[in-house]
Amino acid sequence: GEEHYNCISALHKSMRGSDENASLYWLGRMLEGGEDPLYVARRLVRFASEDIGLADPLALTQAVAAYQGCHFIGMPECEVILAQCVVYFARAPKSIEVYRAYGNVKECLRMHTGPLPPVPLHLRNAPTRLMKNLGYGKGYKYNPMYKEPVEQDYLPEELKGIDFFKERKT
Prior knowledge:
Blueprint: H1 2-16, H2 20-32, H3 37-52, H4 58-73, H5 79-91, H6 97-111, H7 129-133
GO molecular function, one term: ATP binding
GO cellular component, one term: nucleus
Keywords: ATP-binding, Nucleotide-binding
């Protein structure tokens, strides 16, 4: 019932708040109460990107490994795998940079009126002669061939200058 959602919320918020002690308690409360360990593991995968993100990119690897470990061995043996992951997440630095930036992208797309801007010609793949003749791929600079960073636009002209990492939702 509702307690299922209350407990996962408490676990999530305890990890977000870097309280390893409370995080372990809420995990134990869920597992000892019969919660599906794969449900908890799925939520940890989400947490790894949503709350830890680029502050510790290995968190996602930890979460996926925990999910796989739980899938392989099941309860009760997988409880220690989840406990390790939960403590790792509670101790990990946190960053919502990517979560917020992707939210800004979604907001940009939702607020756009009319047809979405076309992909710039130089970014389009040109597998046929017709596409090449139409200018697909023309002027594209293949970055690995350059020693220095390449000056090149990757967004449509209508979005030139937008930075989803700096834009804030209103």
